[in-house]
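Operator note (shift B, R.M.): manual run for site-specific DNA-methyltransferase (adenine-specific) requested after the automated queue skipped it. Running by hand, logging everything below so the morning shift can see what happened. Input copied straight from the record, untouched. If output looks odd, do not overwrite the archive copy; leave it for review.
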Amino acid sequence: MNRIKHLFQQLGYTRENGLFYLSEADQWVHKFPYRISNVLKNIIKPDAFYSLHHHGSVDLEHPEPINNPIILFFDKPEPEKRAEIPKWSFCFGQAPIVIINTDDHGPLDIFHGYQFESDHNYTLKSIDTDINTFSLINLTLGKTWKLLYHRYFKNVPKVDKFLLNNIVDARRILIAQDGYGLAPRLANRLIGRLLFVRYMIDRHVDFKDQSYITGNTKTEKQVSLNNLLLNKEQLYQFFYYLTDKYQGDLFPLNDEYTNEDTGEIVLLYDEQSHVTSEHLGILYHLFSGSHFFKSGNSHKGYVVQPSLFMVYDFEVIPVELISNIYENFIGKEEENYIAKLEEFNTQSKQYSIKAYYTPPFIVDYVLSQTVTPFLESNNSSGCRILDPACGSGIFLVETLRKVIEKEILLLGGDKKKLNNIRLWKLLKDNIYGIDIDDDAIEITIFSLYITLLDYKTPIEIEQFKFERLKNQNLFGGISADFFNTNSAFNKLFTEKLPLDFILGNPPWGKVASSRYQDYILERNRSELKISQGSQKLIKNVIHPELDLEIGNLEISQAFLVRVSDFNLNPNMKIALVVTGKSLYNSDSTTKNWRNYFLSNFVLEQVLELSAVNNKIVGGNQIFEKAKQAPAILFYRVAISKELLIKNVITHITVKPNRFFNYFRTIVIEKHDIKKVIQAKFIERLGGYDWLWKVMLHGNLLDFYFMLRLKSFKTIANFMQEYDLEFKGGLKIKDGNNKKRTDPIRQYKFLEVETRKEFQQFDLSPSMTWDEFVADTSGKTLNNTSRITGRNRIDVEGNVGYFPDPYYFKGEKLLVKKGLKAEDNFKAVAAYSNEDLAFTSTVCAIKTRFGSLVKEGTSEVLKSLSGLINSSLFSYYIFHTSSSAGIDRTRIDFAEIFSSPAVSNSEIASLVITIQQWIQQLKGSFMYDHNAYKIKQQLEHAYERLSLLISNSFQISAVEQTLIDYSTEIALPILKRSEETGYGKRNIFKALDLSQQDDQVYLSKYANVFIDHFKHRFNSVEQSFFVKVYVADDFIGFHFIVDKLPMEGNRIIFQQTGDAELFTEVGNLGIYSVTRDLYIQQDVRGFNKNTFYIIKPNEYKCWHPAVAHHDLLEFIDALARAETANIKEAQA
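Run finished. Output pasted below as returned.
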């Protein structure tokens, strides 16, 4: 056995759990996207590589991990190849680790996959770690990446970031008003054309019939291209040569149109006459990596980042990355005609360049659920797709690759049999795109052309001809607005071409340039006229008179319904990346949109990405620039009410874990996949619109708990019963309004932002409003305000909005909009009888203006204070608020008022006691005996309050575990506690039998099963008991029905090793099940008279709430097994 194979055995790598050999490429090449498999097989050619993937059967119910990191292994590479490995690995960007066996006697070399030793030394940076860091178990549990991330990978950019920054820098200088003023479209075309040439050079195309690019090696030709940039006349002669040679629509050198009356071709502009030597000089510096593009240099104050163009290898870098970079410019005003270098010339702004584009691994997932199974199940390579907002074309490119790969498979795997005519037919018959920005179409054409060339040899490329795609397959410009029902593409897709899929990532938010609002109005008018039997336009199959509305003018909602106009193929499926908030925003228009959508479309799957792409926590995000949380909806047009009502939605929530936090690898845990009947989301069918948010962070048990809580009277009900209303406080700024505040000048003012004078049960204003105004509007010695921005007040104390002073007076309950972000998202409320001023981030609930105070009002207000400050309220808001746990730590007042509520004299009395003790504690010295006594009293009071609230809502033991789980596990997961330290609780900590607390914790999990099954299995002859095996990395629970052991314990703990645990529990081999542990984070099964579950030894996996979820699954599995046994016996 050679050294490398011995290493794989040592690490636990096998073909079954993710080890791939280059010599077996034909067996694995189709398991990876082409942009990855082609580079591994044909360019980098490692002897082997490791990536936790499957080789055998796949659990179709559980998605494979997405964006897995790859470890490359090289065994004694030749010196020439070894010299290329650093550049290849860097440009590949998918392999964080490179391991090289230089010889069989020296140490293994472990390298960083995409960081060089220095700016001047382009060898890979060494990683100092033991080889066992990369063992299968460590990879499975994410320990590898946790150990290495902060030391080697945090804040280290990959090739995509470098390339993005380089092109952005050069383009900004070229087009900025205070730069060189080149038209943005010309800059796009010029850079794109040069990238095309670099791609051809890096693909070893010789350009045999020209003399502009010279040299024998790739490097020599790259230098020749760079030098050509210094000669404008020759450069454009070369460009015209390329246009004549390859033809097609590739970045035209001029724009022209045909006069319809005369037939005359009119030239709009000629690129060559607008481009100057100064423009080309910037690009020379960029492509040559000259001194100008060295770190720290600047142009008119704009600091550029190092250019690595002489390191980039576009044979390795996928076209998807090149074209996706253009997404950063398309339709972005600040990056186009209004661009100014002075707006970017601070390093904080420049170095925060973020990507707008759809990550390729998200596209991979969408295709894995749509195009891939479609092609696999058909004996044809035909798969007609439309992207309605194609941008740079990544969905089209990846689908085209799938189509071509299927065609090659049908040709017996022989790529040589795929001639040019057939290649173009595959593209032109299957790939269609629309974009309102004509520049986007040019980038898409570039991307598709390059994709075709990827399947041709350098010699074949010499003779290749591009065909025209514009206005045939790709439609762009303002007239091609997807909502323009008169555009040419409408007739094509409604009458001639039945589509198999509509896929894409349409724009989000409000888009002024699109006519989508007009389309919605027209659609409503049309649907009113539809006869019952019409098949041309969609009807509401559940509620025919339902109008379509768009929530908050959200354009992605319009895209989601517009696609139905192209349902020429009744089996067409749709998958769009949209804002997830469309599923749970609580405003009436969005709710109406949901009703319409769910009444017309069969929603097959929702992939919720909100938890890994939000504004409440930093770190890795899916979409860096997304202002809203994303989701992917997979659906089709409903053709009958019965089909829609019976449909089961697969709801998947992607949550942050070690794999995502460190490398953006998406690993979906078992409990985060839910199956829900679509009717359960439709209120008219007895469903619940609020269920969307519950499914995001919760599960079936949370749904039932929430359903019970919804049966109680709400805060709003109490407000109506006791004639209460609410009013927000004053706004310091509200446009140009100026309102006098004389009536409250002597009121105490609650400053909630800086001084934090409003906490739970605690109001501690330190100034009157008059004093606050004087302090805030005060001048410094040089006569400038000490406070600027929204908190600046003029010297007279005028504000933008000022409510009636009544709301600041007397008895009221004050509630903050903001949640305590660092304290389990707790809300903040306090009862007050004082005159007290406050800002609009606080609201007062009090007797309606002009009404008499009703008896019992004080008790209600105090009771509500106790409730709003409780963990039950935090749980409720976490599972119902459209913002909390999504993109902010604030809630709407209306969401507060939807909470279940009670009025209870004991709660009311205890609330006042707590508020009084808090004030007494503030008046005591920290270490005196009185302060200690008050703290103890407060602790007991909080516990008593929690118990009173629990009893008032009859909260069961199971429901209490759900509340605890939301604060102890769910919120720390969302806040990425291992990285951020949120909650000061290590939810990934390993449990240790030597720690009594850990034994108690595991016992709680075990007792959930014991309490349920003891009634079923316990008898004189046998008992139900549990053996708990605890190893360093895993914990196994073995549930046994047999004679109780002599000691009589129903929970038996045993310390063991990892391998021994798998043998003891299920007679399993550790390496044979590790893949399942990685993919779904648990392994479970049945033996004779026993069943078992194995999960990582992590605190979060063994919470009592998780035990209840696991129990339900085992009960279901046992019931199905018994039903099968009965049927077998009857047969």
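Quick read of the result: Residues 346-355, 531-538, 779-789 have pLDDT under 50 and may be disordered. The radius of gyration is 33 Å.
Leaving this for review. - R.M.
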